[in-house]
Design a protein that fits this description.
Layout: H1 19-27, H2 33-40, H3 44-53, E1 73-75, H4 83-87, H5 94-104, E2 109-114, E3 119-128, H6 132-139, E4 151-154, E5 157-161, E6 164-168, E7 171-175, H7 182-188, H8 198-201, H9 206-216, E8 217-220, E9 225-229, H10 235-247, E10 253-257, E11 264-268, H11 270-280, E12 315-317
Antiparallel strand pairs: 1-12, 2-3, 3-7, 4-7, 5-6, 8-9, 9-11, 10-11
Length: 318
């Protein structure tokens, strides 16, 4: 339709505003005008003006009663029979690899070890003493033959920072035994630091997402939205993460600059937050319930569609 595309010409650095995209975000993905304005980095009034100009009717009422079409997520329920295991020679099980993929996006690191004969990798998982129970939860997924026991890396102490006494919590860790994770390293590391790639994100399962959220996520009780700390990744990598939530998980979200002055964090909308909690519900550690809504019921199980799509190692999850 002629005139369906509206371009912001006042600032070339800002995103181009497409009415068809606004319509899709508002009617299909459930974003409010305010959330769409944050996405386009413009005022709410400008979004309302464009919507009114093209005859988009506003849906009245509170957001909790607003009718929204919730799309279904498509993602692997398990890593078995995926090309991940054909690309690496690993002795990890699917569950163990799912934990590794999720925690590498959060608090853990992948260490490369090289000698004259071969190259191997260790995954180091660390948490403070306050989150020791959560570290034990992650360790419970691993067999003893592929993983070391939890050990204390540092005692709690008091150190001086800018002439002030600061409490430093104790630190606990465990690591996987040397293994061949060269393929994982190649799609998560550019040789200098940890990076995000679309290929890596496509391997994430509900368990991986649950571990990632418990590592780096938080829940805002006032706004009822999830925020995932992604400030260690570049703006381009953050856009890859945002597009993954949009395209693969069908969860509208936006990037927000952090209060610390550098980097971004990923903020999910209220509908996306509810959807993600429903997805990761079976894998929330009891010590991490403080990162969940007050009415969160961990006893509920994941509802998956066990149709023919499961045979292809994917399922539609509400």
């Amino acid at each position: 339709m002629q005139g369906s595309r509206i371009i912001m010409d006042t600032n070339t650095d800002k995103k181009k505003i497409d009415f068809e995209d606004i319509k899709k975000m508002y009617l299909e993905k459930g974003l409010t005008y305010k959330e769409i304005a944050i996405y386009y980095e413009c005022s709410v009034g400008r979004i309302r003006k464009i919507a009114k100009r093209h005859g988009l009717k506003s849906i009245r009422g509170k957001s909790k009663t607003r009718k929204v079409i919730i799309q279904k997520s498509l993602l692997p329920l398990s890593l078995e029979n995926t090309d991940l295991f054909s690309n690496i020679e690993t002795y990890f099980t699917s569950k163990e690899m799912e934990i590794i993929l999720g925690t590498l996006l959060g608090d853990s690191s992948l260490k490369k070890r090289q000698n004259k004969k071969y190259i191997s990798y260790n995954v180091y998982m660390t948490n403070s003493g306050k989150q020791l129970e959560y570290l034990r939860y992650k360790r419970s997924f691993f067999r003893d033959e592929v993983c070391n026991n939890i050990r204390k890396e540092r005692d709690s102490s008091i150190i001086k920072i800018k002439h002030k006494d600061c409490n430093v919590d104790s630190l606990f860790a465990f690591s996987t035994k040397p293994s061949n994770l060269d393929y994982i390293f190649s799609i998560l590391n550019n040789g200098k630091r940890k990076i995000i790639t679309k290929r890596y994100l496509e391997y994430l399962t509900p368990l991986s997402l649950a571990i990632w959220y418990q590592d780096n996520g938080s829940y805002n009780l006032q706004n009822r939205v999830i925020r995932i700390a992604t400030m260690c990744f570049s703006q381009e990598e953050n856009n890859i993460i945002k597009n993954y939530f949009y395209d693969n998980l069908k969860m509208p979200c936006f990037l927000e600059k952090t209060n610390c002055g550098f980097g971004y964090s990923l903020v999910l909308t209220q509908n996306s937050t509810k959807k993600l909690f429903n997805l990761i519900r079976p894998y929330i550690c009891s010590s991490m319930l403080y990162k969940c809504p007050l009415d969160f019921d961990p006893s509920e199980t994941l509802k998956a569609d066990n149709s023919s799509s499961v045979s292809k190692n994917t399922s539609q999850l509400v």
